[in-house]
Automatic annotation (TrEMBL):
It is a multi-pass membrane protein. The keyword Cytoplasm does not apply. Keywords: Membrane, Phosphate transport, Symport, Transmembrane, Transmembrane helix, Transport. GO terms for cellular component: membrane. InterPro entries: MFS_dom, MFS_sugar_transport-like, MFS_trans_sf, Phos_permease. The chain crosses the membrane at residues 21-48, 68-87, 99-118, 162-189, 212-231, 348-366, 372-391, 403-421, 441-461, 482-500. Residues 23-505 form the Major facilitator superfamily (MFS) profile domain. High-affinity transporter for external inorganic phosphate. It comes from Gossypium hirsutum (Upland cotton). This is Probable inorganic phosphate transporter 1-3. Residues 521-531 have a biased composition (Polar residues). Belongs to the major facilitator superfamily. Phosphate:H(+) symporter (TC 2.A.1.9) family. One of its GO terms (molecular function) is phosphate transmembrane transporter activity. It is found in: Membrane.
Amino acid sequence: MANQLGVLNALDAAKTQWYHFTAIVIAGMGFFTDAYDLFSISLITKLLGRIYYFDPLSPKPGTLPPRIAAAVNGVAFCGTLTGQLFFGWLGDKLGRKRVYGLTLMLMVICSIASGLSFGKSPEGVMATLCFFRFWLGFGIGGDYPLSATIMSEYANKKTRGAFIAAVFAMQGFGILTGGIVALIVSAAFDHAYKAHPYFRDREHSTVPQADYIWRIILMFGAIPALLTYYWRMKMPETARYTALVARNAKQAAADMSKVLQVDLNSEQEKVDKIGTEPSNSFGLFSKEFAKRHGLHLLGTTSTWFLLDIAFYSSNLFQKDIFSAIGWLPKAETMSATHEVYRVAKAQTLIALCGTVPGYWFTVAFIDHIGRFAIQLMGFFFMSVFMFALAIPYQHWKTHNAGFLIMYSLTFFFANFGPNATTFVVPAEIFPARLRSTCHGISAAAGKAGAIVGSFGFLYAAQSTHEDKVDKGYHTGIGVKNALLVLGAVNCLGMLFTLLVPEPRGRSLEEITGENEEEKGQQQASVGNVPV
């Protein structure tokens, strides 16, 4: 583009270099921590139930009451949703870099604090845990729009999709590490403090030292985040923010000269000229934004919302599915520490086989077949597998291996599909001065879907028979009907994907129309039709 700034051209055309990989690791560590924290809570909820809600008269080990379980699992989501909106907006107001260190510190402090508790009563422990997990979520929420925007603004146009997807793929390693840490800690405690299974000795099946297990697992989440803090602070502000939003051409050229190790000219007149163009002055709530990007924002928010309903409710089924298949023995046949070990082992296996490979398939193919195709394909196969699990549901009860394979494939196509693309696209299709905000709005819609998926399905998937319902819950629609609903949700996702444009292979300014000189060119740059 003739009107493109030299510094942005240099970034677009840059060969893949070392700084791209350092940026992926620095930005990805937030996601590593995010996945670690959200994932590890599901490993320890059974243990918390045994320690704090033990009933010596019950034939089964203690479990968290439904309302407490919902709060412990869901409070981090509520924090994340708030953080995405707040830090997304702040990232456009103050700059990506200034806000970036703040979110990381919040994550470190709250990871450590969530392993501490005031008082010994169950209420006190749960209240402390929920309080700090909310603020942990708030910090994690800020990482979504900031990491995606920073990576998208640093990347070259040829491999931008793969770089943003690689940041997101660090979640896979976070999930794996969560499982591995839980395995090591629980195995060590199991070995050091011998305990009988619950049915043999109710009182002593949970050793007092087991209280340290969940605290160590949660606190470990602070370590990777802390390690990257120094590098985050050294990272310069992105050139696109400095030039197009802060309008400081000299600073942008100086920063990128260091990063790219080439001499770049500052083009202040060009920056001022671009800044006065009508295409660079409309706000988020203007008619002009609605005309140019309204449908895009509807596309990114709705697809993320629908995906997360399906994605997070599937995650919740894991423990029930493992028990049904016989991967997890009945709770009363295990001691508390051994149960943590078995749950961690099962979840780590699923992560290794389905979750992690899916992320990296996206990284490999996103710049070849495009975001649109991957997203459409992912939603399609997720619907297919959900229906295939639901319709012959009785058959799968006796064919466990088949059920497990289908279940893993749903996860694989979520990650080699909309789970990755819904994160990538909002960081590319909105103008620089609104990019972080729009990504935050899209991500918050996703977390709203996660809340619906987690809580709606916790209750909905309960059995239709009164005697098979979990303690404290009412009857629901059953797993089969819940899976049918999820299949339909994925079909809707396919429909809304049609609103999202294909940004592959074009510079960010070309996609958003920020460098247009004439109004006549506006419509040309942003089409709804995938390329």
